[in-house]
Design a protein that fits this description.
about 450 residues; mainly alpha; 22 helices; signal; Chemotaxis protein MotC
Length: about 450
């Protein structure tokens, strides 16, 4: 409360002083220091500080646009300019100030590199910042610089990127910089194929920054890593970390994990996550989320349990599912219904010429005659493809099976048909899921 009161007074004084002609404007470095305090509160979960951060960024931006060259004789103001820029500042403002200052040497490289990064010009940013060592600069600038350099090369050089993220954490512990460094280290650990490092980073984030407003990005990376590493991360370790979260967060993580595991065909992991989501809901005395039932059913469909799956799906209310999950629900029902569909009647056998049959019987042993006269079954691959097409058509038609009037294949094909059907449909669901995610991203833009 004390910090909020001080910052509120600071904001009020900064806003009215120039208009009232009350003395000199506040030094830029003091304003940036206040901005850092607010951002650190955000990292610890004070979401009420978000409006204050926006206002401080606005006021700091205005202050830097009017700053004089003489004011940068105080080194703290140049440091503050760099911190402001890397804290979500305005690249146009940074460009204006740099053109006014015309810095030289490492300051020029730092300023131009940060400006290029803010404008998305990553190759240029990497070139300008390459010679700068974050550990040799002022800690508050070095921490941000390490974070920026790690972010630039994360995809190309994940090992080096993780090293920069560690520097950022070392230089700015307990701050929004450390929060971002931990969060951005997760994809790099996945790229490096290091499940132990990944889980260690996850635990550090959960223990320190789970209340951050950026925790949803962490959750996405956490679940993606669990799916990528699969059985190399055991369920006990997952449970130990997720148990550190609040019940609502636990359920959200397990539901995300169940869905992604289902799409990837990771049956045991999906069953584990679905069951944990149910347990958390029961312990919290909250209604069970229908998605837990849906994901468990879809991941576990086999020829042997198709009836049980249908019974489970009957308990799911599709109206309570998102459009994306309704597609999965329809696919699950279609797969189970296909497995339970009655076998086709055997095709009629053409009458055999009596004389030819008699001649054959003279040459073929009696026990073989019946086998020769039995009808050939339909090609198993052809039957499987037909079933797959029916499911694919159903998904495209929004849940209505496209019938060509033909019944299902003969019973002796069931096992191979069902196995192929489940495998094929799971691959289709993965493609559908990606298309739906792309559609969601377009809607958000």
């Amino acid at each position: 409360m004390m910090l909020r009161a001080v910052l509120a007074a600071l904001l009020l004084g900064t806003a009215i002083a120039p208009a009232a002609g009350q003395g000199a404007a506040m030094e830029p470095f003091k304003m940036v220091r206040s901005l850092q305090l607010v951002q650190d509160r955000l990292a610890r979960g004070d979401h009420a500080a978000l409006p204050m951060q926006r206002k401080l960024l606005e006021l700091t931006d205005e202050r830097f646009r009017t700053v004089t060259k003489e004011e940068f004789t105080d080194r703290r103001n140049f440091t503050a300019l760099m911190v402001y820029a890397m804290s979500g500042g305005n690249p146009d403002t940074l460009d204006i100030v740099l053109s006014r200052l015309v810095p030289e040497g490492s300051d020029r490289s730092l300023g131009q590199g940060v400006l290029a990064y803010m404008r998305g010009q990553l190759p240029k940013a990497a070139e300008e910042l390459a010679a700068l060592d974050p550990m040799s600069l002022e800690p508050e600038v070095g921490a941000y610089l390490a974070l920026v350099k790690g972010s630039i090369i994360a995809l190309r050089q994940p090992g080096t990127a993780v090293g920069f993220m560690d520097q950022a954490r070392l230089l700015a512990p307990g701050t929004l910089v450390e929060e971002a460094a931990l969060r951005r280290s997760l994809p790099a650990s996945i790229a490096l194929d290091q499940p132990d490092r990944f889980m260690t980073t996850v635990e550090r984030y959960v223990r320190r920054f789970l209340a951050s407003p950026y925790a949803s990005e962490f959750a996405d990376a956490f679940v993606e890593g669990l799916v990528t590493f699969g059985d190399r991360i055991d369920a006990e370790r997952i449970d130990g970390i997720v148990s550190l979260m609040r019940p609502a967060q636990q359920e959200a993580i397990y539901l995300r994990l169940a869905r992604r595991s289902t799409i990837k065909g990771q049956v045991q992991r999906s069953a584990f996550a679905s069951q944990k989501a149910r347990e958390v809901a029961r312990m919290a005395h909250s209604p069970e989320d229908p998605r837990a039932t849906l994901y468990a059913a879809l991941a576990s469909i086999t020829a042997e349990n198709a009836r049980e799956v249908v019974a489970s799906l009957e308990k799911v209310d599709p109206s309570k599912l998102s459009p994306r999950d309704r597609r999965l629900f329809l696919a699950a029902r279609a797969i189970a219904d296909e497995m339970l569909s009655p076998p086709a009647p055997l095709p009629a056998v053409a009458e055999i010429d009596a004389s030819s049959a008699k001649a054959d019987e003279d040459e073929i042993p009696a026990e073989k005659t019946a086998e020769m006269s039995a009808p050939e079954t339909e090609n198993p691959q052809k039957a499987t493809k037909s079933a797959e097409k029916q499911i694919a058509d159903m998904i495209e038609n929004g849940g209505t099976p496209a019938s060509d009037g033909r019944p299902a294949g003969p019973p002796d094909e069931g096992t191979s048909r069902n196995a192929g059907l489940v495998s094929s449909v799971r691959s289709k669901l993965d493609a559908i899921d990606k298309m739906l995610e792309a559609a969601d991203e377009r809607e958000l833009k």
